[in-house]
Each structure stands twice: as C-alpha cells, then as structure tokens.
Amino acid sequence: MISIKHKDFLFTSIKDYIIPAEKVAHVQVGNNAEHALLVLTKTGYSSIPVLDAEDKLQGLLSMRTVTDSILGLAHIEYERLREISVDQLMRAELDTLKTTDTFQKGFDYLIDLPFICVVEDDGTFSGILTRRVILKQLKKYIYNVH
Ligand code: 2BA
After folding, report:
1. Any ligand 1 atom below 6 A from CB of 135
2. Domains of the chain, earliest start first
C-alpha cells in the first residue's frame, strides 16, 4: 500500500525537471541523413527529437536507423546519406508528456524509454524528461525518507 508521503512524490509535477528545448540536441524535418549523423555523432546521444520549422515535435531519430539506412549488402553506401531525408527515417508515432503531468506518469514511460518528449497542447516542443533526471529525484527521495 502506498502511503500519502509516497503519493506526494509521485504526484509532483515534472515541470521543474524538464531539460528545456533550447538545451536539447535536435534535427529538423527536411535535414538530410548526413546532417543527422553529424549531430548524433557530435552530441553522443543515441536518439534525438525531430522538429519542424515552427518548433513542433514531428518524431524521433535514432543513430541506429540512420546507419541502418546506408547498409548495403556488401558495403556501407555513404553517398546515400545526402539523398535520404530525416522524415523518411524518423519514428513519428510517439508517446509524449505535458508539462502539467506528474512523476507517476513519467515513471511509467521511463521504465521502457530512456527519455520522453514533453509538448504543449498545440504540439510545440517544450523539452525532454530523461531517465537520469527522474532516477536522481527518486534517489534523493529514498535517501530522505529512510
Ligand atoms: P542515450 O544517448 O542513449 O544516453 C544514455 C545515457 O548516457 C544518458 O542518460 C546519459 O546519462 C549518458 N549520456 C549519453 N550521452 C551523453 C552526453 N553527450 N552528455 C552527458 N551524458 C550523456 P539520460 O541523461 O537519462 O538521457 C536519456 C536519453 O535522452 C539519451 O539516451 C538521449 O537519447 C536523450 N537525451 C538526453 N539529453 C539530451 C539532450 N540534451 N539532447 C538530446 N537528447 C538528449
């Protein structure tokens, strides 16, 4: 049985724990796969959001999908990187959170995902909630309670 105290923690808003959009590495729809590969490699992240010109979230792009797209049967077809567009590779079906959502909802997603995108009602990208941030808060909470 979960006590009131635990519920307080679970019902904390994620608002103050979001990594804001301006600090999140991203690519834009229309960028080619070469640009995406550079961003993914330089930042070191394995997956990043794809935004449109109005900063609305359109999907997620992973390093794996980019490299997979240029794997030929016998060799890597680097020249294809400029021909492929990010929107051909991104995953567009996404679960998202709102800034008003609680840790509880964040937890449920971050068990399976390393991060989840946070969007406004109109789809504008607000930032991400990462597994690292939520685990740090959980650790703080556990150490304070016991
Ligand atoms: P991954 O790139 O697979 O990274 C897994 C974990 O490795 C990260 O967990 C972080 O602890 C560490 N890590 C990887 N690259 C790092 C870097 N360049 N600087 C510092 N630490 C790094 P989380 O921090 O929980 O992030 C979970 C996932 O969220 C990352 O998975 C990445 O896909 C995404 N992410 C995190 N911060 C991001 C940012 N500023 N921009 C874009 N995507 C971000």
Report:
1. no
2. 4-144 (3.10.580.10)
pTM of the model: 0.92
Q: Which of 83, 27, 36 is nearest to 55 (CA)?
A: 27
Q: Please list, in sequence order, all residues whose beta carbon lies within 8 angstroms of the beta carbon of residue 39, skipping any fewer than 6 positions away.
A: 25, 26, 27, 48
Tell me the mean pLDDT per 10 residues along the chain, length 146: 64 94 98 98 98 98 97 91 97 96 92 96 97 93 78
Neighbouring residues of 63: CB distance < 8 A, sequence distance ≥ 6: 37, 40, 41, 46, 47
Q: What is the pLDDT of residue 7?
A: 67
Distance 146 CA to ligand 1 centre (A): 29
